[in-house]
Amino acid sequence: MAEKKTTKQILAQVASPSPKTQLYNPIALERLKERLEKWRNLTLPESDRFGWHKSPSTILGSGIPRELLYTPLSVSNLEYEEDLGLSGEPPFTRGIHPNMYRGKKFTIRQLTGFGSPEETNERMKFMLSHGATGLNILFDIPTIQMYDSDDPLAEGQVGMSGVCVDSVEDMALIFKDIPLDEVTVSIVTHYPSNTAILFPMFLVLAEERGIPWDRLRGSVQNDITLEELVRSGSEYIPPRDCFRLQCDNIEFIRTNVPKWNFITLNGYNLREFGTSAITETA
Is the pTM higher than 0.70? Predict the structure, then answer.
């Protein structure tokens, strides 16, 4: 009878590194090491010998040291299957699709959304007729801050930086004569609080047209970091509540709208607000 392992033992076994498969011939690596040393001493200008590891602050600001020259020695300890793998499989370093852009072409969509729902509808039809394969919808500040267009606080801002949406009827006007199940839609507003209001409007519209939710494709941003750190208005949702709202959005979309991307992390905006390149990429 096999010995029963504790949870701690199982986790330790899973976490323990497996024996690495050497990708390069050890003899060839040793020869290359000697050749590289000669190159440094004989070919490389003397001024570069002492700056072999360039200061990252003068290159990309990433904080990651970079060498002047990379060779197989730089990746001699790489475990190909674990560290890179194949496209379409974990850890997805080579891409999330097996054939990448050869079979899954990049979606072509420019930012769209201004003025009234009718004006945005005309613009989206124009974009689709000129080669767009997806739609990016921007909303005005009153919509993002969750004010009705006739609220006194919305005066002067309605339709200025995106389309105004006050109801499902507005959403219907935006997507009039546009097949929701044939085009991907990105609802461009970072905040989980907006996702919880605007995305259900989109779902109700699909339901009214008799389109099953599992045929809808697109994305919401639903990003707590943007709501808490890069908000464009004075309203503030406490982080604990915002995070709960974000998780509720994720769970609902994952369960009910399986082809929809339930979160989009926007590193660009964070970088504009002062974060580092590493944090932006992460």
Answer: yes
